[in-house]
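Would you kindly consider the sequence and fold I have copied below?
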Amino acid sequence: MLQFHHDEISELPSGATLLASSPMYAHQAFRVGRHVYGLQFHIETTPEVVHEWAGRDVVGVASSPWDRETICRLSDEAHPHIQETWAPFAGRFAELVRTHAQQAA
């Protein structure tokens, strides 16, 4: 997954269920109750978005182990896999939201 942030939560909210973690970030995804989800990674990116972020976030790039060009290259290489993995997730999540909104109406 793509990480592009400076802030992170260090402790899950009370009653939260951990859904995903990584060696760098212990709390990647979590759920609170049945309807609240928290993600600390990006599933919505495109190569163009990452290139823009890498160009604007001088501090973030400087604090990473890579330079801007390497970040962009690695992102470009990863995006087909990210799309393949996360497009179904995003579609299912959107369907959950639509279904809930219809039931609430």
About this structure: The mean pLDDT is 89. DSSP finds three helices and three strands in the chain. Strands lie at 16-20, 29-32, 36-39. The two ends are 35 Å apart (CA to CA).
